[in-house]
Amino acid sequence: MDSYSLKSVFDLPESFRSIFNFRYFNSLQSECFPVCFLSDVNMVISAPTGSGETVLFELCILRLLSRFISGDGRFVHIKGTLKTIYIAPSKALVQEKLRDWTQKFGSLGISCLELTGDNDSYSTRNIQEADIILTTPEKFDAVTRYRIKDGGLSFFSDISLLLIDEVHLLNDLRGATLEAIVSRIKMLARNPEMKSSALASVRFLAVSATIPNTEDLAEWLEVPVQGIKRFGEEMRPVKLTTKVFGYASAKNDFLFEKRLQNYIFDILMQYSRGKSALVFCSTRSGAQEAAQRLSQIVMTFGYSNPFIKSREQQERLREASLSCSDKQMQSYILYGVGYHNGGLSLKDRNLIECLFLNGDVQVLCTTNTLAHGINLPAHTVVIKSTQHFNKEKGLYMEYDRSMILQMCGRAGRPPFEDTGMVIIMTRRETVHLYENLLNGCEMVESQLLSCLTEHLTAEIVQLTISDITKAIEWMKCSYLYVRMKKNPGNYAVKKGIRREQVEKHMQEICVQNVNELSCHQMIQTDQDGFALKPQEPGRLMTKYYLKFNTMKHIMQAPSSCSLEEVLQIICHAEEIASQTQ
Protein backbone atom coordinates (compact mmCIF):
# COMPACT_ATOMS: atom_id res chain seq x y z
CA MET A 1 0.00 0.00 0.00
CA ASP A 2 1.63 3.29 -1.11
CA SER A 3 1.49 6.60 0.78
CA TYR A 4 -1.43 7.80 -1.37
CA SER A 5 -3.54 4.89 -0.09
CA LEU A 6 -2.67 5.35 3.57
CA LYS A 7 -5.33 6.86 5.79
CA SER A 8 -4.47 10.06 7.61
CA VAL A 9 -5.41 11.26 11.10
CA PHE A 10 -7.11 14.10 9.22
CA ASP A 11 -9.71 11.52 8.16
CA LEU A 12 -10.87 11.68 11.81
CA PRO A 13 -13.04 14.38 13.39
CA GLU A 14 -10.95 17.30 14.65
CA SER A 15 -11.66 16.42 18.30
CA PHE A 16 -9.90 13.05 17.88
CA ARG A 17 -6.78 13.94 15.88
CA SER A 18 -4.60 14.70 18.89
CA ILE A 19 -4.98 11.08 20.07
CA PHE A 20 -2.30 10.00 17.61
CA ASN A 21 1.25 11.38 17.44
CA PHE A 22 1.71 10.52 13.76
CA ARG A 23 0.12 11.73 10.55
CA TYR A 24 -0.48 8.53 8.60
CA PHE A 25 -1.75 5.13 9.70
CA ASN A 26 0.33 2.16 8.52
CA SER A 27 -0.84 -0.30 5.85
CA LEU A 28 -2.60 -2.66 8.26
CA GLN A 29 -4.33 0.18 10.11
CA SER A 30 -5.33 1.89 6.85
CA GLU A 31 -6.90 -1.30 5.50
CA CYS A 32 -8.89 -1.76 8.71
CA PHE A 33 -9.81 1.93 9.09
CA PRO A 34 -13.13 1.83 7.15
CA VAL A 35 -14.44 -1.10 9.21
CA CYS A 36 -12.99 0.05 12.55
CA PHE A 37 -14.00 3.69 12.42
CA LEU A 38 -16.71 3.96 9.76
CA SER A 39 -18.88 1.01 10.81
CA ASP A 40 -20.12 -0.80 13.91
CA VAL A 41 -19.63 -4.39 12.72
CA ASN A 42 -17.84 -6.97 14.85
CA MET A 43 -14.24 -7.70 13.88
CA VAL A 44 -11.60 -10.41 14.20
CA ILE A 45 -8.07 -9.45 13.22
CA SER A 46 -5.25 -11.96 12.88
CA ALA A 47 -1.85 -10.29 12.55
CA PRO A 48 1.79 -10.69 13.63
CA THR A 49 2.67 -9.25 17.04
CA GLY A 50 3.91 -5.66 16.83
CA SER A 51 2.18 -4.68 13.59
CA GLY A 52 0.22 -1.80 15.12
CA GLU A 53 -2.87 -3.59 16.44
CA THR A 54 -3.31 -1.22 19.40
CA VAL A 55 -4.34 1.56 17.01
CA LEU A 56 -7.24 -0.64 15.83
CA PHE A 57 -8.56 -0.79 19.40
CA GLU A 58 -8.24 2.99 19.61
CA LEU A 59 -10.10 3.53 16.34
CA CYS A 60 -13.00 1.40 17.61
CA ILE A 61 -13.05 3.39 20.87
CA LEU A 62 -13.15 6.62 18.86
CA ARG A 63 -15.97 5.21 16.73
CA LEU A 64 -17.97 4.69 19.93
CA LEU A 65 -17.07 8.14 21.26
CA SER A 66 -18.12 9.76 17.98
CA ARG A 67 -21.70 9.34 19.21
CA PHE A 68 -20.94 12.23 21.58
CA ILE A 69 -20.01 14.64 18.77
CA SER A 70 -22.78 17.22 18.39
CA GLY A 71 -24.10 18.65 15.15
CA ASP A 72 -21.73 21.60 15.35
CA GLY A 73 -18.71 19.30 15.80
CA ARG A 74 -18.29 19.69 19.58
CA PHE A 75 -17.45 16.66 21.73
CA VAL A 76 -19.95 16.56 24.60
CA HIS A 77 -19.32 13.47 26.69
CA ILE A 78 -21.69 11.89 29.25
CA LYS A 79 -19.53 9.95 31.71
CA GLY A 80 -19.97 6.17 32.01
CA THR A 81 -22.96 5.83 29.69
CA LEU A 82 -21.16 3.91 26.93
CA LYS A 83 -18.55 1.55 28.30
CA THR A 84 -15.58 -0.07 26.63
CA ILE A 85 -14.18 -3.24 28.21
CA TYR A 86 -10.59 -4.09 27.30
CA ILE A 87 -9.52 -7.65 28.21
CA ALA A 88 -5.88 -8.75 28.05
CA PRO A 89 -4.09 -11.89 29.31
CA SER A 90 -1.78 -10.19 31.82
CA LYS A 91 -1.75 -7.41 34.41
CA ALA A 92 1.38 -5.99 32.79
CA LEU A 93 -0.38 -5.57 29.44
CA VAL A 94 -3.44 -4.06 31.14
CA GLN A 95 -1.27 -1.57 33.03
CA GLU A 96 0.67 -0.68 29.88
CA LYS A 97 -2.59 0.17 28.08
CA LEU A 98 -3.91 1.99 31.16
CA ARG A 99 -0.94 4.37 31.18
CA ASP A 100 -1.18 4.94 27.45
CA TRP A 101 -4.95 5.43 27.26
CA THR A 102 -5.23 7.55 30.40
CA GLN A 103 -2.86 9.99 28.74
CA LYS A 104 -4.44 9.78 25.27
CA PHE A 105 -8.13 9.83 26.14
CA GLY A 106 -7.83 11.95 29.29
CA SER A 107 -7.86 15.10 27.17
CA LEU A 108 -11.38 14.13 26.07
CA GLY A 109 -12.52 13.66 29.67
CA ILE A 110 -12.60 9.88 29.28
CA SER A 111 -11.93 7.97 32.52
CA CYS A 112 -10.03 4.66 32.54
CA LEU A 113 -10.27 2.10 35.36
CA GLU A 114 -7.97 -0.84 35.98
CA LEU A 115 -9.50 -4.05 37.33
CA THR A 116 -6.66 -6.44 38.19
CA GLY A 117 -5.30 -8.17 41.26
CA ASP A 118 -2.99 -5.19 41.74
CA ASN A 119 -5.89 -2.78 42.13
CA ASP A 120 -8.68 -3.53 44.58
CA SER A 121 -9.31 0.12 45.46
CA TYR A 122 -12.41 0.47 43.33
CA SER A 123 -16.07 0.74 44.18
CA THR A 124 -19.31 0.09 42.35
CA ARG A 125 -19.47 3.82 41.74
CA ASN A 126 -15.98 3.79 40.16
CA ILE A 127 -17.12 1.04 37.82
CA GLN A 128 -20.37 2.84 36.98
CA GLU A 129 -18.56 6.09 36.13
CA ALA A 130 -15.68 4.55 34.16
CA ASP A 131 -15.71 4.86 30.38
CA ILE A 132 -12.95 2.33 29.67
CA ILE A 133 -12.45 -0.66 32.00
CA LEU A 134 -9.17 -2.50 31.50
CA THR A 135 -8.98 -5.95 33.03
CA THR A 136 -7.86 -9.58 32.84
CA PRO A 137 -10.36 -12.41 32.23
CA GLU A 138 -10.00 -13.74 35.79
CA LYS A 139 -10.51 -10.39 37.49
CA PHE A 140 -13.47 -9.42 35.32
CA ASP A 141 -15.07 -12.77 36.06
CA ALA A 142 -14.32 -12.49 39.79
CA VAL A 143 -15.70 -8.95 40.11
CA THR A 144 -18.99 -10.00 38.57
CA ARG A 145 -19.07 -13.17 40.68
CA TYR A 146 -18.40 -11.96 44.20
CA ARG A 147 -19.97 -8.54 43.95
CA ILE A 148 -23.37 -9.58 42.69
CA LYS A 149 -25.20 -8.06 45.67
CA ASP A 150 -23.12 -4.87 45.29
CA GLY A 151 -24.13 -4.47 41.69
CA GLY A 152 -21.37 -6.54 40.12
CA LEU A 153 -23.45 -7.07 36.99
CA SER A 154 -25.25 -3.71 37.02
CA PHE A 155 -22.83 -2.02 34.61
CA PHE A 156 -23.30 -4.73 31.96
CA SER A 157 -26.17 -2.86 30.35
CA ASP A 158 -23.77 0.00 29.51
CA ILE A 159 -21.19 -2.20 27.77
CA SER A 160 -21.02 -1.01 24.17
CA LEU A 161 -17.63 -2.27 23.05
CA LEU A 162 -15.64 -5.37 24.04
CA LEU A 163 -11.97 -5.37 23.04
CA ILE A 164 -10.21 -8.74 23.36
CA ASP A 165 -6.44 -8.57 23.10
CA GLU A 166 -4.58 -11.78 22.27
CA VAL A 167 -7.74 -13.82 21.87
CA HIS A 168 -5.55 -16.85 21.07
CA LEU A 169 -5.44 -17.14 24.88
CA LEU A 170 -8.49 -19.38 24.33
CA ASN A 171 -6.01 -22.15 23.53
CA ASP A 172 -4.53 -22.07 27.05
CA LEU A 173 -6.18 -23.41 30.20
CA ARG A 174 -6.89 -19.81 31.27
CA GLY A 175 -8.83 -19.38 28.04
CA ALA A 176 -11.88 -21.05 29.57
CA THR A 177 -12.50 -17.98 31.74
CA LEU A 178 -12.24 -15.64 28.75
CA GLU A 179 -14.64 -17.85 26.83
CA ALA A 180 -17.11 -17.94 29.74
CA ILE A 181 -17.29 -14.16 30.20
CA VAL A 182 -17.66 -13.47 26.47
CA SER A 183 -20.43 -16.09 26.32
CA ARG A 184 -22.07 -14.38 29.31
CA ILE A 185 -22.02 -11.02 27.54
CA LYS A 186 -23.48 -12.60 24.40
CA MET A 187 -26.26 -14.21 26.45
CA LEU A 188 -27.16 -11.01 28.29
CA ALA A 189 -27.11 -9.02 25.05
CA ARG A 190 -29.85 -11.31 23.72
CA ASN A 191 -32.00 -10.89 26.82
CA PRO A 192 -35.28 -9.11 25.89
CA GLU A 193 -34.94 -6.99 29.04
CA MET A 194 -31.74 -5.52 27.57
CA LYS A 195 -33.40 -4.57 24.29
CA SER A 196 -33.17 -0.82 24.87
CA SER A 197 -29.68 -0.89 26.45
CA ALA A 198 -26.26 -0.33 24.89
CA LEU A 199 -25.44 -3.99 25.53
CA ALA A 200 -28.08 -5.13 23.04
CA SER A 201 -25.87 -3.92 20.20
CA VAL A 202 -22.48 -4.57 21.82
CA ARG A 203 -19.59 -4.59 19.39
CA PHE A 204 -16.72 -7.11 19.55
CA LEU A 205 -13.16 -6.61 18.34
CA ALA A 206 -10.80 -9.53 18.89
CA VAL A 207 -7.13 -9.38 17.95
CA SER A 208 -5.07 -12.54 17.59
CA ALA A 209 -1.59 -13.60 16.57
CA THR A 210 -1.41 -15.33 13.20
CA ILE A 211 -3.66 -18.41 13.41
CA PRO A 212 -5.17 -20.78 10.82
CA ASN A 213 -8.80 -20.80 12.03
CA THR A 214 -9.75 -17.13 12.19
CA GLU A 215 -13.14 -18.03 10.72
CA ASP A 216 -14.02 -20.01 13.87
CA LEU A 217 -13.45 -16.95 16.05
CA ALA A 218 -15.52 -14.98 13.55
CA GLU A 219 -18.40 -17.46 13.84
CA TRP A 220 -18.24 -17.29 17.64
CA LEU A 221 -18.29 -13.49 17.73
CA GLU A 222 -20.80 -13.19 14.86
CA VAL A 223 -18.41 -11.32 12.60
CA PRO A 224 -19.50 -10.60 9.00
CA VAL A 225 -17.12 -11.17 6.09
CA GLN A 226 -16.00 -7.54 5.95
CA GLY A 227 -15.00 -7.71 9.62
CA ILE A 228 -12.54 -10.60 9.17
CA LYS A 229 -9.01 -9.35 8.53
CA ARG A 230 -6.01 -11.66 8.11
CA PHE A 231 -2.47 -10.38 7.77
CA GLY A 232 0.71 -12.37 7.25
CA GLU A 233 4.36 -11.79 8.05
CA GLU A 234 4.56 -9.18 5.29
CA MET A 235 2.79 -6.80 7.67
CA ARG A 236 5.44 -7.18 10.35
CA PRO A 237 7.46 -3.95 10.48
CA VAL A 238 10.70 -5.96 10.71
CA LYS A 239 11.65 -9.29 9.15
CA LEU A 240 11.71 -11.93 11.89
CA THR A 241 13.63 -15.21 11.70
CA THR A 242 12.69 -17.93 14.18
CA LYS A 243 14.41 -21.09 15.39
CA VAL A 244 13.18 -23.73 17.86
CA PHE A 245 15.82 -25.95 19.44
CA GLY A 246 14.97 -29.12 21.35
CA TYR A 247 17.04 -30.57 24.18
CA ALA A 248 16.94 -33.87 26.06
CA SER A 249 15.00 -33.81 29.31
CA ALA A 250 16.83 -33.82 32.65
CA LYS A 251 15.91 -35.60 35.91
CA ASN A 252 13.56 -32.74 36.71
CA ASP A 253 12.41 -29.44 35.21
CA PHE A 254 14.64 -27.36 37.49
CA LEU A 255 17.79 -29.16 36.33
CA PHE A 256 16.66 -28.98 32.70
CA GLU A 257 16.40 -25.20 32.80
CA LYS A 258 19.72 -24.92 34.65
CA ARG A 259 21.44 -27.04 32.00
CA LEU A 260 20.21 -24.79 29.19
CA GLN A 261 22.53 -22.05 30.48
CA ASN A 262 25.43 -23.97 28.93
CA TYR A 263 24.07 -23.42 25.40
CA ILE A 264 23.20 -19.70 25.51
CA PHE A 265 26.64 -18.31 24.64
CA ASP A 266 27.04 -20.47 21.52
CA ILE A 267 23.53 -19.52 20.38
CA LEU A 268 24.29 -15.82 20.79
CA MET A 269 27.56 -16.15 18.89
CA GLN A 270 25.83 -17.88 16.00
CA TYR A 271 22.63 -15.84 15.71
CA SER A 272 22.83 -12.41 17.37
CA ARG A 273 25.44 -11.09 14.90
CA GLY A 274 27.03 -8.93 17.57
CA LYS A 275 23.78 -7.08 18.20
CA SER A 276 21.66 -6.65 21.32
CA ALA A 277 20.06 -9.74 22.85
CA LEU A 278 17.40 -10.39 25.49
CA VAL A 279 17.56 -13.76 27.25
CA PHE A 280 14.24 -14.56 28.92
CA CYS A 281 14.51 -16.74 32.04
CA SER A 282 11.63 -18.07 34.13
CA THR A 283 12.86 -16.85 37.54
CA ARG A 284 14.84 -14.00 39.06
CA SER A 285 17.60 -16.37 40.14
CA GLY A 286 17.60 -17.94 36.67
CA ALA A 287 18.22 -14.54 35.07
CA GLN A 288 21.00 -13.82 37.54
CA GLU A 289 22.65 -17.21 37.00
CA ALA A 290 22.46 -16.88 33.20
CA ALA A 291 24.20 -13.49 33.40
CA GLN A 292 26.81 -14.98 35.70
CA ARG A 293 27.48 -17.89 33.34
CA LEU A 294 27.86 -15.60 30.31
CA SER A 295 30.21 -13.33 32.27
CA GLN A 296 32.35 -16.30 33.28
CA ILE A 297 32.64 -17.42 29.66
CA VAL A 298 33.55 -14.03 28.15
CA MET A 299 35.99 -13.39 31.02
CA THR A 300 38.24 -16.05 29.47
CA PHE A 301 38.38 -14.07 26.20
CA GLY A 302 40.35 -11.22 27.78
CA TYR A 303 40.56 -8.25 25.40
CA SER A 304 38.69 -10.26 22.72
CA ASN A 305 35.36 -10.17 24.60
CA PRO A 306 32.74 -10.41 21.80
CA PHE A 307 30.31 -8.21 23.78
CA ILE A 308 32.69 -5.23 23.93
CA LYS A 309 33.55 -3.40 20.71
CA SER A 310 35.74 -0.49 21.82
CA ARG A 311 37.82 1.03 24.59
CA GLU A 312 35.23 3.79 24.90
CA GLN A 313 32.51 1.23 25.58
CA GLN A 314 34.76 -0.49 28.13
CA GLU A 315 35.36 2.81 29.91
CA ARG A 316 31.63 3.63 30.02
CA LEU A 317 30.95 0.19 31.50
CA ARG A 318 33.61 0.75 34.19
CA GLU A 319 31.98 4.04 35.18
CA ALA A 320 28.51 2.44 35.19
CA SER A 321 29.79 -0.42 37.34
CA LEU A 322 30.93 2.02 40.01
CA SER A 323 27.46 3.60 40.19
CA CYS A 324 25.67 0.23 40.51
CA SER A 325 24.69 -0.76 44.05
CA ASP A 326 24.15 -4.46 43.25
CA LYS A 327 27.49 -6.18 43.90
CA GLN A 328 26.96 -9.04 41.45
CA MET A 329 25.72 -6.73 38.72
CA GLN A 330 28.84 -4.59 39.12
CA SER A 331 31.06 -7.41 37.87
CA TYR A 332 28.70 -8.53 35.07
CA ILE A 333 28.41 -5.01 33.63
CA LEU A 334 32.19 -4.92 33.08
CA TYR A 335 31.77 -7.72 30.53
CA GLY A 336 28.82 -6.19 28.64
CA VAL A 337 26.29 -8.43 30.37
CA GLY A 338 23.47 -7.59 32.77
CA TYR A 339 20.29 -8.92 34.32
CA HIS A 340 16.94 -7.29 34.99
CA ASN A 341 14.31 -8.39 37.50
CA GLY A 342 12.00 -7.10 40.20
CA GLY A 343 14.65 -7.66 42.89
CA LEU A 344 16.83 -4.79 41.66
CA SER A 345 16.53 -1.30 43.09
CA LEU A 346 14.82 1.27 40.86
CA LYS A 347 18.16 3.04 40.40
CA ASP A 348 19.90 -0.15 39.23
CA ARG A 349 16.99 -1.06 36.95
CA ASN A 350 17.13 2.37 35.31
CA LEU A 351 20.90 2.06 34.96
CA ILE A 352 20.82 -1.34 33.26
CA GLU A 353 17.95 -0.26 30.97
CA CYS A 354 19.94 2.79 29.81
CA LEU A 355 23.08 0.71 29.26
CA PHE A 356 21.11 -1.81 27.19
CA LEU A 357 19.32 0.83 25.12
CA ASN A 358 22.54 2.63 24.23
CA GLY A 359 24.26 -0.66 23.37
CA ASP A 360 26.92 -0.71 26.07
CA VAL A 361 25.37 -3.81 27.66
CA GLN A 362 24.85 -6.18 24.74
CA VAL A 363 23.16 -9.09 26.53
CA LEU A 364 20.42 -8.65 29.11
CA CYS A 365 19.10 -11.68 31.00
CA THR A 366 15.63 -11.01 32.33
CA THR A 367 12.38 -12.45 33.63
CA ASN A 368 9.22 -12.33 31.54
CA THR A 369 8.22 -8.99 33.11
CA LEU A 370 10.18 -7.34 30.30
CA ALA A 371 7.86 -8.94 27.74
CA HIS A 372 5.34 -6.21 28.57
CA GLY A 373 5.44 -2.56 29.39
CA ILE A 374 9.05 -1.38 29.30
CA ASN A 375 10.15 -0.71 25.73
CA LEU A 376 13.46 -2.61 25.66
CA PRO A 377 13.48 -4.36 22.29
CA ALA A 378 16.50 -6.22 20.95
CA HIS A 379 17.77 -7.72 17.73
CA THR A 380 17.76 -11.21 19.25
CA VAL A 381 15.41 -12.82 21.76
CA VAL A 382 16.33 -16.11 23.40
CA ILE A 383 13.64 -17.88 25.43
CA LYS A 384 15.56 -20.12 27.81
CA SER A 385 12.96 -22.86 28.41
CA THR A 386 9.27 -22.69 27.60
CA GLN A 387 8.37 -23.61 31.18
CA HIS A 388 8.09 -21.47 34.28
CA PHE A 389 7.55 -22.29 37.94
CA ASN A 390 3.91 -21.67 38.89
CA LYS A 391 3.88 -20.73 42.58
CA GLU A 392 0.13 -21.27 42.92
CA LYS A 393 0.30 -24.85 41.65
CA GLY A 394 3.80 -25.59 42.95
CA LEU A 395 5.11 -27.04 39.70
CA TYR A 396 6.70 -26.18 36.36
CA MET A 397 4.20 -25.40 33.59
CA GLU A 398 4.42 -24.31 29.98
CA TYR A 399 4.09 -20.58 29.45
CA ASP A 400 0.79 -19.33 28.06
CA ARG A 401 1.08 -19.03 24.31
CA SER A 402 0.35 -15.33 24.61
CA MET A 403 3.39 -14.90 26.87
CA ILE A 404 5.64 -16.74 24.41
CA LEU A 405 4.41 -14.49 21.59
CA GLN A 406 4.90 -11.37 23.72
CA MET A 407 8.50 -12.36 24.42
CA CYS A 408 9.05 -13.07 20.72
CA GLY A 409 7.56 -9.67 19.95
CA ARG A 410 10.55 -7.97 21.63
CA ALA A 411 12.79 -9.09 18.76
CA GLY A 412 13.58 -6.51 16.09
CA ARG A 413 11.12 -3.86 17.22
CA PRO A 414 11.11 -0.68 15.11
CA PRO A 415 12.60 1.86 15.00
CA PHE A 416 15.50 0.17 16.78
CA GLU A 417 16.07 -2.69 14.31
CA ASP A 418 14.98 -3.67 10.79
CA THR A 419 15.51 -7.41 11.37
CA GLY A 420 15.00 -9.69 14.33
CA MET A 421 15.91 -13.17 15.54
CA VAL A 422 13.96 -15.43 17.93
CA ILE A 423 15.39 -18.62 19.43
CA ILE A 424 13.17 -20.83 21.60
CA MET A 425 14.88 -23.45 23.76
CA THR A 426 12.53 -26.25 24.77
CA ARG A 427 12.29 -29.99 25.33
CA ARG A 428 12.59 -32.21 22.27
CA GLU A 429 9.03 -33.45 22.62
CA THR A 430 7.56 -29.92 22.46
CA VAL A 431 9.56 -28.56 19.49
CA HIS A 432 6.70 -29.10 17.03
CA LEU A 433 4.25 -27.22 19.29
CA TYR A 434 6.35 -24.07 19.21
CA GLU A 435 7.18 -24.38 15.52
CA ASN A 436 3.44 -24.48 14.82
CA LEU A 437 2.85 -21.52 17.13
CA LEU A 438 5.53 -19.36 15.50
CA ASN A 439 4.43 -20.34 12.00
CA GLY A 440 0.79 -19.53 12.73
CA CYS A 441 -0.24 -23.16 12.19
CA GLU A 442 -1.66 -23.92 15.63
CA MET A 443 -5.44 -24.23 15.69
CA VAL A 444 -7.20 -22.33 18.47
CA GLU A 445 -9.31 -24.82 20.44
CA SER A 446 -11.69 -24.36 23.38
CA GLN A 447 -10.68 -25.29 26.93
CA LEU A 448 -14.13 -24.75 28.44
CA LEU A 449 -15.04 -28.43 28.70
CA SER A 450 -12.37 -29.07 31.36
CA CYS A 451 -14.05 -26.67 33.81
CA LEU A 452 -17.57 -26.51 32.43
CA THR A 453 -19.20 -27.47 35.76
CA GLU A 454 -17.64 -24.51 37.61
CA HIS A 455 -18.55 -21.96 34.94
CA LEU A 456 -22.07 -23.35 34.56
CA THR A 457 -22.56 -22.97 38.32
CA ALA A 458 -21.33 -19.37 38.16
CA GLU A 459 -23.86 -18.50 35.46
CA ILE A 460 -26.71 -20.07 37.46
CA VAL A 461 -25.62 -18.14 40.57
CA GLN A 462 -25.52 -14.89 38.59
CA LEU A 463 -28.97 -15.74 37.17
CA THR A 464 -27.68 -15.57 33.60
CA ILE A 465 -29.04 -19.10 33.41
CA SER A 466 -32.43 -19.82 35.00
CA ASP A 467 -33.47 -23.07 33.31
CA ILE A 468 -32.20 -25.93 31.15
CA THR A 469 -33.10 -24.11 27.94
CA LYS A 470 -30.99 -21.13 29.00
CA ALA A 471 -28.14 -23.45 29.97
CA ILE A 472 -28.13 -24.98 26.50
CA GLU A 473 -28.39 -21.51 24.94
CA TRP A 474 -25.36 -20.38 26.98
CA MET A 475 -23.37 -23.35 25.70
CA LYS A 476 -24.39 -22.44 22.15
CA CYS A 477 -22.91 -18.98 22.80
CA SER A 478 -19.55 -20.57 23.58
CA TYR A 479 -16.51 -21.12 21.41
CA LEU A 480 -16.72 -24.74 22.55
CA TYR A 481 -19.88 -25.14 20.47
CA VAL A 482 -18.15 -23.75 17.37
CA ARG A 483 -15.12 -26.02 17.68
CA MET A 484 -17.15 -29.07 18.73
CA LYS A 485 -18.87 -28.90 15.34
CA LYS A 486 -15.58 -28.50 13.48
CA ASN A 487 -13.36 -30.87 15.48
CA PRO A 488 -15.66 -33.28 17.35
CA GLY A 489 -12.89 -35.78 18.07
CA ASN A 490 -11.11 -33.25 20.28
CA TYR A 491 -14.14 -33.04 22.56
CA ALA A 492 -14.92 -36.74 23.03
CA VAL A 493 -17.34 -36.79 20.12
CA LYS A 494 -17.00 -39.33 17.33
CA LYS A 495 -15.82 -37.96 13.98
CA GLY A 496 -18.17 -37.99 11.03
CA ILE A 497 -21.36 -37.37 12.99
CA ARG A 498 -23.89 -34.84 11.74
CA ARG A 499 -24.31 -31.35 13.18
CA GLU A 500 -27.61 -32.17 14.85
CA GLN A 501 -25.92 -35.09 16.59
CA VAL A 502 -23.23 -32.75 17.93
CA GLU A 503 -25.97 -30.54 19.35
CA LYS A 504 -27.57 -33.56 21.00
CA HIS A 505 -24.22 -34.53 22.51
CA MET A 506 -23.76 -30.99 23.81
CA GLN A 507 -27.24 -31.03 25.37
CA GLU A 508 -26.42 -34.33 27.07
CA ILE A 509 -23.23 -32.82 28.52
CA CYS A 510 -25.24 -29.86 29.79
CA VAL A 511 -27.97 -31.98 31.39
CA GLN A 512 -25.36 -34.30 32.94
CA ASN A 513 -23.60 -31.33 34.56
CA VAL A 514 -26.87 -29.85 35.83
CA ASN A 515 -27.92 -33.18 37.34
CA GLU A 516 -24.59 -33.56 39.12
CA LEU A 517 -24.81 -30.03 40.53
CA SER A 518 -28.33 -30.71 41.74
CA CYS A 519 -27.32 -34.05 43.26
CA HIS A 520 -24.66 -32.32 45.37
CA GLN A 521 -26.95 -29.43 46.40
CA MET A 522 -25.09 -26.72 44.48
CA ILE A 523 -28.30 -25.84 42.67
CA GLN A 524 -31.96 -26.75 42.97
CA THR A 525 -34.18 -27.96 40.16
CA ASP A 526 -37.97 -28.04 40.15
CA GLN A 527 -39.96 -31.28 39.92
CA ASP A 528 -39.66 -31.58 36.15
CA GLY A 529 -35.96 -30.68 36.31
CA PHE A 530 -36.46 -27.59 34.16
CA ALA A 531 -36.00 -24.50 36.36
CA LEU A 532 -32.56 -23.98 37.96
CA LYS A 533 -31.97 -22.05 41.18
CA PRO A 534 -28.67 -21.50 43.02
CA GLN A 535 -28.20 -22.91 46.51
CA GLU A 536 -25.85 -21.58 49.20
CA PRO A 537 -23.08 -24.17 48.52
CA GLY A 538 -23.15 -23.18 44.85
CA ARG A 539 -22.97 -19.49 45.77
CA LEU A 540 -19.96 -20.12 48.00
CA MET A 541 -18.28 -22.24 45.34
CA THR A 542 -18.74 -19.43 42.82
CA LYS A 543 -17.75 -16.60 45.15
CA TYR A 544 -14.49 -18.23 46.22
CA TYR A 545 -13.61 -19.77 42.84
CA LEU A 546 -13.61 -23.32 44.22
CA LYS A 547 -13.39 -26.43 42.08
CA PHE A 548 -16.50 -28.61 42.05
CA ASN A 549 -14.61 -31.61 43.48
CA THR A 550 -13.27 -29.45 46.32
CA MET A 551 -16.77 -28.26 47.17
CA LYS A 552 -18.07 -31.84 47.12
CA HIS A 553 -15.43 -32.90 49.67
CA ILE A 554 -16.31 -29.94 51.88
CA MET A 555 -20.00 -30.84 51.68
CA GLN A 556 -19.28 -34.48 52.55
CA ALA A 557 -17.28 -33.58 55.65
CA PRO A 558 -19.07 -34.28 58.97
CA SER A 559 -20.22 -31.17 60.84
CA SER A 560 -18.12 -32.17 63.86
CA CYS A 561 -14.88 -32.96 62.02
CA SER A 562 -11.58 -32.33 63.77
CA LEU A 563 -8.95 -29.76 62.84
CA GLU A 564 -6.85 -32.57 61.37
CA GLU A 565 -9.75 -33.66 59.13
CA VAL A 566 -10.32 -30.06 58.01
CA LEU A 567 -6.64 -29.73 57.10
CA GLN A 568 -6.78 -33.01 55.17
CA ILE A 569 -9.70 -31.73 53.10
CA ILE A 570 -7.86 -28.49 52.37
CA CYS A 571 -4.59 -30.21 51.49
CA HIS A 572 -6.35 -32.63 49.13
CA ALA A 573 -8.16 -29.82 47.31
CA GLU A 574 -7.21 -29.71 43.61
CA GLU A 575 -6.35 -26.03 43.95
CA ILE A 576 -3.38 -26.68 46.26
CA ALA A 577 -2.82 -30.46 46.29
CA SER A 578 0.20 -30.24 43.97
CA GLN A 579 1.99 -28.00 46.47
CA THR A 580 1.58 -30.43 49.37
CA GLN A 581 2.60 -33.67 47.68
Account of the protein in words:
By secondary structure, this protein is an alpha/beta fold. It has four domains: 9-235, 3-Layer(aba) Sandwich (Rossmann fold); 239-436, 3-Layer(aba) Sandwich (Rossmann fold), CATH 3.40.50; 448-545, Arc Repressor Mutant, subunit A (Orthogonal Bundle); 548-581, no CATH class. The chain has 22 helices and 17 strands. Strands 3-4-2-5-6-1-7 form a seven-stranded parallel β-sheet, with helices on both faces. Helix 4 (124-129) links the parallel strand 3 (112-115) and strand 4.
Summarize the structure.
The chain is α/β, with parallel strands linked by helices. The chain has helices at about 25-40, 55-65, 90-105, 125-130, 135-145, 175-190, 215-220, 255-270, 285-300, 310-320, 325-335, 345-355, 400-410, 430-440, 450-460, 470-475, 480-485, 500-520, 535-545, 550-555, 565-570, 575-580; strands spanning about 45, 85, 110-115, 130-135, 160-165, 205-210, 230, 240-245, 275-280, 335-340, 365, 380-385, 385-390, 395-400, 420-425, 525, 530-535. The protein has 4 domains: about 10-235, 3-Layer(aba) Sandwich (Rossmann fold); about 240-435, P-loop containing nucleotide triphosphate hydrolases (Rossmann fold, 3-Layer(aba) Sandwich); about 450-545, Winged helix-like DNA-binding domain superfamily/Winged helix DNA-binding domain (Arc Repressor Mutant, subunit A), CATH 1.10.10.10; about 550-580, no CATH class.
